[in-house]
């Protein structure tokens, strides 16, 4: 059976909405505060499951209230959580997010239990992980673990999709073993240090990564949509224009939907359309997992937008 395994982070997002961020030393009144389930790994797992793919989450939470809420959020979306460990040694990961009325956000992460996803954890769950059709990774668990999984998956011919966010350098011999690399502009420039100010620049940088050995490079460009660059083709999908209130987890929604489309054998163009459509819907709502759309909503949005130009 086609199955996606996400090995990554689970964070409770502490979201403060405010007109503007305070200056250093200043105190201001905010607008609202909410606890919203998040973490790039868990967000991407939920997006993949909502897009219709059997998805398993691998990671670690603390034996505390936040951990329980995060597991329930995954379960509610249909993600298998039996392999998520619980630890009493350290608290569940949190992300402090300040969201301005303009939609701009600032995020500070305390990794907590996510740091316990080490190579020993991977080895002890490998019998399950190796059954996956695709492994999905981000950079919110220890980097050493990410690199170890990429090597191990490559040796077992399991495709890997890497979303290297937040960005940290990836050794070239590890990068070449990644099948699908999904980056934003900042991450793209981290890998190919070059000026990127047009779609042509983006395509050129993507091609350089192809030449390093990564077959499929996807670059998310916010308001400019997304570009897929491979040795065979280049596809630019323009963005769906929406009223953006919060971009948190838009990239995660894109990645999860794209992963799901790939293992379900969608053409790359259709995969891009679906993923951009889902990411556009995600930015119309506040929060991470609270904003990830289900497949029915994504399909009707994409169809309506394409036929009627609905915004
Ligand atoms: O990508 C969005 C996510 O980044 C948030 O949910 C937050 O937890 C941080 O990990």
Describe this structure in words.
- By secondary structure, the protein is of the alpha/beta class.
- It has a single domain (4-9, 40-58, 113-308), classed as UDP-N-acetylmuramoyl-L-alanine:D-glutamate ligase (3-Layer(aba) Sandwich).
- It has helices at 40-50, 65-76, 119-129, 143-155, 172-175, 185-191, 199-212, 250-263, 268-282, 295-308, and strands spanning 4-7, 11-18, 32-38, 55-62, 84-87, 93-100, 105-110, 134-138, 160-163, 180-184, 216-220, 226-230, 234-237.
- Helix 8 (250-263) runs antiparallel to helix 9.
- The termini are far apart.
- The mean pLDDT is 96.
- The site of alpha-D-ribofuranose has 15 residues, from strand 2, helix 1 and strand 7.
- Residues 9, 11, 13, 38-40, 43, 95, 107, 109, 140, 248-249, 252, 288 line the site of alpha-D-ribofuranose.
Short structural summary:
The protein has 311 residues and is α/β, with parallel strands linked by helices.
């Amino acid at each position: 059976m086609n199955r996606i395994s996400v090995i990554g982070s689970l964070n409770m997002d502490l979201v403060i909405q405010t007109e503007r961020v305070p200056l250093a030393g200043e105190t201001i009144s905010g607008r609202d505060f909410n606890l919203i389930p998040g973490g790039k790994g868990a967000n991407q797992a939920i997006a993949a499951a909502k897009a219709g793919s059997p998805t398993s989450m691998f990671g670690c939470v603390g034996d505390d209230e936040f951990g329980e809420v995060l597991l329930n959020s995954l379960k509610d979306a249909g993600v298998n959580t039996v392999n998520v460990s619980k630890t009493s040694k350290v608290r569940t990961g949190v992300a402090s997010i300040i969201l301005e009325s303009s939609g701009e956000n600032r995020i500070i992460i305390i990794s907590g239990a996510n740091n316990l996803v080490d190579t020993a954890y991977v080895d002890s769950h490998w019998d399950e992980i190796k059954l996956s059709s695709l492994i999905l990774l981000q950079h919110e668990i220890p980097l050493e673990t990410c690199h170890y999984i990429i090597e191990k998956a490559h040796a077992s011919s399991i495709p890997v999709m890497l979303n290297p966010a937040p960005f940290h350098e990836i050794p070239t011999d590890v990068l070449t073993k990644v099948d699908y690399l999904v980056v934003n502009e900042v991450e793209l420039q981290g890998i190919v240090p070059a000026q990127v100010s047009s779609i042509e620049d983006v395509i050129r940088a993507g091609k350089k990564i192809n030449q390093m050995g990564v077959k499929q490079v996807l670059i998310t460009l916010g308001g400019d949509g997304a570009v897929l660059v491979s040795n065979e083709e280049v596809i630019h999908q323009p963005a769906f224009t929406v009223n953006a209130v919060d971009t948190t987890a838009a990239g995660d929604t894109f990645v999860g939907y794209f992963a799901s489309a790939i293992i379900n054998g969608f053409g790359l163009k259709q995969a891009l359309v679906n993923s951009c459509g889902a990411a556009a819907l995600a930015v119309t709502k506040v929060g991470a997992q609270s904003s990830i759309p289900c497949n029915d909503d994504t399909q009707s949005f994409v169809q309506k937008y394409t036929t009627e130009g609905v915004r």
